[in-house]
Amino acid sequence: MEHPSKLPQMYILEIEPGDDILPLHLRVRLTGTSLDRMFGKATAGRYLHEFIHGPRGDDVMRAFIRSALDQTPIWMRQIVTFPEKAARFVEGIVVPVAPSRIYGGLMAGELTRRTAGGFECLPLSVALAMPGDVAV
What we know:
The mean pLDDT is 84. The protein has 3 helices and 6 strands; from the N terminus they run E-E-H-H-E-E-E-E-H. A hairpin with a 6-residue loop joins strand 1 (10-17) and strand 2. Helix content is 20%, strand content 36%. The protein has a 6-stranded antiparallel β-sheet with strand order 2-1-5-4-3-6. The protein is α+β, with helices and mostly antiparallel strands.
């Protein structure tokens, strides 16, 4: 593997049928250790919507679901505030690899004094072509 240092930030989601509330459910099947530390709990076996929250949580869930339904890789960035921690930028990628599976990565980036802000979501190919640095 070329970048084993990224393994703690990686995850695998299983796409499951939805219900009246969500068109599909995303169950965490495998996750890196830094993600469990970031969320303050074990995430494997749980559903993504159980721990995606905050002012942009709905935007994040819609982006994951749209990516899964369209089978389109995306990049996302937002400001996240975890309890008793400083706000920071969080960037992630979502890469559907089959109708039933998503691979991705999530990294908590630099600290920020802002506690709220925009939510960015782009096709992964567009994000990778942008000047500058995508953290994931």
